[in-house]
C-alpha cells in the first residue's frame, strides 16, 4: 500500500536536509512508503561512461547495481541510455530476453520485480533510481506516481552533489530547497530548461553542470530556481567562461 | 477567417490524410503535436492552440503550442494549477468557456487569458479507453461558442494526439503509457534546453530558435528531438544551423 502523504513528507525532508546523506534518505523513504524491497541510486555519465553507485537501502539493491555495472547490461543501463522508465514485472520470467547475462546473474539475488526510473532532465542525464521487490508483478498507478516523485527528489539532491564538485561552488546560505521542490514542481518549468541551455552556451559545459550551477545559484541566494532562471533569460545574470557568475545590465535584448 | 464550405472540407480531408501518413512513419511526437496545433488554427478558426499532457504526478505539462511565444506557453502552463485544461483532465469531459468575461471558475487563469487578449477558451480531453492523458486547449480572441461540427473535428484532432503518443517509436506492449508519456515530456525539455542554447549563441528569440530547429529537422529529414539533443550535447554544429537558417531568409548572405 502506498502512503503518498508520508512519502511526500519524507522526500521533502530529505531534500530539505540536503548534504551527503540525502540520496540514501530518499531511497529509504521510497523503500518504506512504496511496496519495494529495496531502492538504490546510481550516477552515470553520458560523456565518459563512468558509473558510480551512490547508495542503496540494502545489500540486494546494491548487488543489483553492481552486477549490471560489472556485466555491462541490465535495466539500469537501458533506462539511462534510453531515458525511459524500464519496468520489469519479473526478472525470473523465462520469456524475459532483453538482458540474458544479467538475468542469469540476477537469479542469485532473489529479486523478481525491477523498476528503474531515469534521473534525467531533458539532455541533462544524471543517473537512475532503481527499485526491486522479491515478488513478481507490475506497478499500479499510485506506485508509479510515488516512484516518479522519488526520482524527482533524487534529481534535486544529486544536482547539489554535482554542484559541489564544480569549480567555485556557490556558498550555501541554506533554506528553501525542499519547499522549492515540493511546491513548485520547479524542475518542470520551461524557463529552467531554457536558462540551462543559455548557461551551457555561456559556460561551455554540459547540460547537467549548467543545471547544477543554476540550482546552486538558487540555493545560495535562497530564491526559487524559476526566479534565478528568469534572471538568466533576461540577461541580468550570466556565467563567465571561467565559471564565475556575473550580474550585469543587459546589452543584448532579453530572450523572451 | 471563414473558409468556404467546400474549401474547408478539402482542407479537412488533406489534414487527416497527412496525419494518418505521419502516424505510420517514423515521426517526432513533439513535431507532430506542433503540426496538430497549427491544424487547429487552420480548421477551427481558433487563434491559439496548445497541448498539455499529464506528468503522472497529478499535474499537466505543456508539450506544444501553435506559437512558441513565451507568454502563450505561460498561459497554457498556468493550468497546471487551475483552468479549463485541468478541469477537462480531471473530469475527462470537454470544458467550454465561450465568454471569459463572465467566467468565475478559474479567476487567476481567466485574468491572465483576458490580459493576453483572449475572450473564449475550450478544452478537449485526450482519452484512451478509461484513461485521460492530457487535453487540447483552444483560445479565441472573440467570445464564441464552438459549433458541434467544430467540436467534433477538435475531438478528432485530440484523439490523433493520443494515438501519436501511444504509437511513438520504441513502444512495447507493457508499461507503454508511462514510458511514452515520460518520453514526450523529456522531448519537450530537450527542445527547451536547445532553444536556450541557440538563443544565447545566435542572440535570437526563443520562438525563432524553435522555428529554425523545426525547419532544419524537416529539411534534413531528422526528428526534431534528435536535432535538439544534438544542439544540447554539442554534437551538432550550431554555427551552421544559425548561419544557414539566416541565409535561408536572406538569400544575399
From TrEMBL, chain A:
<dbReference type="Pfam" id="PF13185">
    <property type="entry name" value="GAF_2"/>
</dbReference>
<dbReference type="Pfam" id="PF03861">
    <property type="entry name" value="ANTAR"/>
</dbReference>
<dbReference type="InterPro" id="IPR005561">
    <property type="entry name" value="ANTAR"/>
</dbReference>
<dbReference type="InterPro" id="IPR036388">
    <property type="entry name" value="WH-like_DNA-bd_sf"/>
</dbReference>
<dbReference type="InterPro" id="IPR003018">
    <property type="entry name" value="GAF"/>
</dbReference>
<protein>
    <submittedName>
        <fullName>GAF domain-containing protein</fullName>
    </submittedName>
</protein>
<dbReference type="InterPro" id="IPR029016">
    <property type="entry name" value="GAF-like_dom_sf"/>
</dbReference>
<keyword id="KW-0804">Transcription</keyword>
<feature type="domain" description="ANTAR">
    <location>
        <begin position="172"/>
        <end position="233"/>
    </location>
</feature>
<keyword id="KW-0805">Transcription regulation</keyword>
UniProtKB/TrEMBL annotation, chain B:
<dbReference type="InterPro" id="IPR012074">
    <property type="entry name" value="GAF_ANTAR"/>
</dbReference>
<keyword id="KW-0804">Transcription</keyword>
<dbReference type="InterPro" id="IPR029016">
    <property type="entry name" value="GAF-like_dom_sf"/>
</dbReference>
<dbReference type="InterPro" id="IPR003018">
    <property type="entry name" value="GAF"/>
</dbReference>
<keyword id="KW-0808">Transferase</keyword>
<dbReference type="Pfam" id="PF01590">
    <property type="entry name" value="GAF"/>
</dbReference>
<protein>
    <submittedName>
        <fullName>GAF and ANTAR domain-containing protein</fullName>
    </submittedName>
</protein>
<keyword id="KW-0805">Transcription regulation</keyword>
<dbReference type="InterPro" id="IPR036388">
    <property type="entry name" value="WH-like_DNA-bd_sf"/>
</dbReference>
<feature type="domain" description="ANTAR">
    <location>
        <begin position="171"/>
        <end position="232"/>
    </location>
</feature>
<dbReference type="Pfam" id="PF03861">
    <property type="entry name" value="ANTAR"/>
</dbReference>
<dbReference type="InterPro" id="IPR005561">
    <property type="entry name" value="ANTAR"/>
</dbReference>
<keyword id="KW-0418">Kinase</keyword>
<dbReference type="InterPro" id="IPR011006">
    <property type="entry name" value="CheY-like_superfamily"/>
</dbReference>
